[in-house]
Structures are given as C-alpha cells and as structure tokens.
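User: I've been going back and forth on whether these two constructs are worth ordering. Before I decide, could you fold them both?

Assistant: Sure. I'll take them in the order you sent them. The first construct and its structure tokens:
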Amino acid sequence: MNDPNGAVFYAAGAVLLLAGCLKLPALWHNPKDDLLRSVCALLFTAAGVFALAAVPSVAAINRISGVPNAAAPVVYTLLTAFSGSNLVLIIRWSSGPAEAAHATGWSRRCNGATLVVIAVIIGLFALGDAPVERLVDLDTYYANTPYLREMILLYLVAHTTASVAMTVLCTRWARVVRGPLRAGLVLIVIGYVLNLAFDALKFTAIGARWGGHDLDRLSWPVAPSVAALAALLIGIGFVLPLLSQQLVNLVGPWRRYYQLQPAWKELRGATPHGIAPAGLLRTPIDVRVCRLESDIYDGILAVHPYLDPDVHALSLAEARKTARTDADAAVIADAAALAHAVVLWARRAGDHAALPDGQSGDGPLLSSAVNAAGLVLLSRALSKSPIVRATREAAVLESSTR
C-alpha cells in the first residue's frame, strides 16, 4: 500500500509463495499430514494477502467488480483466513500423536470460527456505506463509519490474536531446539512481533481518528512497510529449515563419500575386485557410498586374521592418555590395529605365509566398524591419528627387517 507499484507487497507474496511451493513435494508424498497441510495453507494464504493487498491489485478488484472498495472485504477475509491458519497450525504443532483426535476437533472449531468471522466481515461491508474509493487509507478514512468501523476492528482483532499465539508458541519451541530449525523459529518470532507492531500502528491510527486527531501516517505508509518486512521474515523462517535439510540431504552423501576415502585407500590392496571411485562418475552418490562401504568391509574381512590383540591393547592404552572419551580411544585402537594388520597382510598374504606366532587368525573385533557412523570415525583415525601413523610405520619397519 505504501508503494504505488506494489513491488514490496508482490515481493513479500512471492517469498511466501515460494515457501509454500517448496513444501508441496512433501505434502504430495504425505497428503494426510495435517501439520504439513496447515503449514501450506498458512503460506499460500499469506501470499494471497500480499498479492491482493498491493495497490494495483486493490484498484483492479474495485474496477472489475464495479463496487468502490470491494477489495477491502476481499483482503480482510484473506487476512482473517491467514489468522485462522495460524491458529490451526498452533493447534497442530502443540499436539502430539496421542492428541491427534483432540487437535482435529479444535482445528475444526477454529476453521468454523474463521468462516463465521469472514461471513461477518462480508456482511458488515454490505451493510456499511463506502462510496469513496480509498486505495491506501480505507482503515482510517472509514474509522468512524458504522459497520465499516466494526469490520476493520474485527479483522485487526483476529490478526492480533493469531500473532500473539504464534509468537508465544514459536518462542517456546526456539528454546528447546537447535540448528536451522531454531534459526527459522527466531525469524518467525521476529516476523510475528512485527505483525503485532503493524496491529498496534493500525489501532493507534484508528483510535486517533476516534479522538479527533490525525495519525493516518501510522496506518499508511508506516504499517504496510512493517507488515511487508514481517511477511518476508516469516517466509524465510519457514523456508530456512527446509532448505537446510535439503542441503544436508544433498551434501551429506558426498561428505560421507570423501570421509570414507582414507579407509578405502588403506584397504584397497585387500579388495582387488573393488570398484575404484574413478569408475563411478556416472553412478548416483548413494550407490557410490554403498559400494565404497562394501569395499571397506571386504578389506576388513580380508585382513581380519592379521589383527593383533596386543597391538590393539597397547594402542588403546596409549590412546586413553590423550583421547577425550573411551569411545574415541577405542576408535583409535581399532584404526591402529587395522593399519598394522594391513601391513602384515601385504607382506604375508601374497606368498601365503603363516600367521605370526601367537596369532590364531581370530583377531579382536573392530567395534567402531559395526555401524556407518563408526566407519567414518575409523576412517578419520586412519588418516589423522599420530598413534595410528606410528603403529603403521613400526609395522612397515618390522616387515622390512624380516
């Protein structure tokens, strides 16, 4: 409204529309997810509010309908629907699986109340008299007009109620979560605080009209600028966790692939039939990771008879002196025993030599290699631990002197 071209409002609407579109694939795969439906309804409704509240849109609605100020009930009903979507979202978010039926009941009541408020807004506009078209200052221009006054107050009260509720809920959530979700919630809270500032500016300007004063500048152009900024922050707040998760899903496999390279390189001699990473350029990254892990496990199996319990025990004792936790020390000990075994395998497996004296071929279990996360830690220790490096070098030196 503060922009004759509507650029600010259209930009805010576009951000909210984008946020809604980004959630559509998830909704497509989970059509019965009530929470996801509520989020999408909120985002698309908010996008509609800003798209239709822009000055060119307001003028177009009035012109097409042939009714002066017909855009007012259209925008106000959309804003009320947006407020109702906020409340439904609150109900969904605050209810666990055990309270699903209870949440559904309250959601239906909220939707019913929203429809009643929308019907009242339309009815009040029909009863009121607004012959002079006002594109930007209808709230204050008709602040003392019967029925229109009540219509304006009704939509502002509904909007304020929803903003307060969303601010409280998101603040509570932001205190107990971390990462991108928390950052998104903080942005949403800031956005709804700005929405409350928008409501306060509107109420102040209307109250001034009732008292015979003129503070219309608070209603326009200040309030719409605040609302547009609020919408942008809310839209970004909803999009941020989603984009972060998508980035993690995209980058995560590649990161794991490169984290496993040290282990693969350590053991590739023991897996001559493995597929080299260079040969997988056209293979999906998930498949590449799976094949890399398979090669690593094949290598561990091949050198397992050469795992020396004494090397493992000595490395564990040494690692406990500097490791932060016993789990970290165990990983280093596993990596040291594995590096030692690889050297022995390389020297003895080729000519089928017997195992070293005292070894039964039933070496210690590498506890860190029993799951995907442990395999990454094992790979990291193989490349970075000075204990592993020293054990490998000692094994090489011992092999060269025999």
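The second construct, handled the same way:
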Amino acid sequence: MKVSDRWWSERLGQELTVSRWGTWGVPVLLFPTAGGDAEEVERGGLIDAVRPLLDSGRAKVYSCDSTAGQALARREGSTAYRMALFNAYHQAVAEEVLPAIASDCGGPQPLVAAGASIGAFNAVALLCRYPHLVDAALGMSGTYAVDAMIGGPLTDDLYFSSPLHFLPGLDGDALEQLRRRMVVLASGTGAWEDISESWEMARVLGSKGVPNRVDDWGPGYAHDWPTWREMLPLYLEDLLP
C-alpha cells in the first residue's frame, strides 16, 4: 500500500511530495526521471518489479518529486536558476527527505539510493555529496553531464551538485567515507542510451578510489521503463544488506 506525505520546502520554495511502498525493511530512495513526480516510479512499473522485496520485508521504497528535473524538462527560468535548483534539491533531500525516512523507519538505517536517467544522476550525486547518509547507489541508464543538458555557463551551484565536477577535488573525511561505499552504473546500448556517460562517471569515481562498476546490458536494452523494471530488482538483491 502506498503512503504519501507532502510539505512546504523552504529550500525549494515549493511543496515536495514523498511516497512510500512497503511496511518494513531497508529503505530505498528511488528517484524519478527528469520530469517525474513521487508516484512516477509506480506508474512506470518499478514498484511491481520489486514487489517480492516489499512483500518479504527486505525493502521499503520511497520516492520524491524530481523538482530540479522538472524545471530542467520544462526549461523554467534561467540556466542559473535551473542549476541552483539542483543544489537546493540535493540539500532538501539530505536535510528533509532523509530525516523523514529515518523517522518513518524508527531511526537511521542503511540506505540505498537508486534512479534512472536524471534519477541516476541524483542517486549518485546524493551518495557522493552525503556518504555519511547513503550506503550505496544504483544508477540505471544514467545521464550525468547535467550541465550540458542545461546549457549556459557552469555555476558554483551545479559544480557542487555534479560528481563529474566536484569529485576530482574531493579529499579528507568525506572522501574516506565515500571510499567505503559502492556505486553500480548499469546501462543498455539500445535506443536512446548513451553508456559513455556511465563510463565517464566510473572513470571519475575510480580516479578517487571509490568502488564502482559499469554493467553493459547491450543493444537489446533501451533507455526506457522495461529496461529499468528488469534492472532494479536484480541489483537491489545484491545491494540490500
């Protein structure tokens, strides 16, 4: 059964919805694609795909609106605004959504972040920015060069939101924590896919000693929901503690 909550986020300057499926188990934060809301993952069949994990109590799946992705898809405001919104979105997830998940789970728990397309970017970015809050990330058919999609000059907001940009300069305790995490990057090479983005993300992660791998699913898998419905339960089986 789905449960949803909605609140006003001062960081985003708008309302934010979070939905949950399952009643107990390890929390999985599943990000929507660029234009998606908190319920898109259900409409896309991902909740049904992981139903055995929900019914067995191995996982509780959460999802929240793709606020920054929606602005990107709609080309809202200036390029600087759209870049700033990614920074605000990650902060809202870390400081509002994750504490709400912890409260719902009765306290902090190991957490897996996952998503497809722009959702993959958000999942990997969340782990890289907040390795003390996220234990593993799964990026499916990831689109990681978000600055190229937005266009315009790169701002500090997007620089510090994008692992491709901020990871090369990361050091200290945050990097040491990140080196104890795992990132899985899965992509097909069929229609609308660009696995080169996953390989570039892997290169940057690897250059900093962050455990990761790229899984190439081949030309039979397109950038679409059937691919992600097959990928998600397979990888969660491995990533869930």
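Notes on the second construct follow. The chain has one domain: 2-239. The beta strands are 2-9, 14-21, 26-31, 59-64, 112-116, 136-140, 182-187, 212-216.
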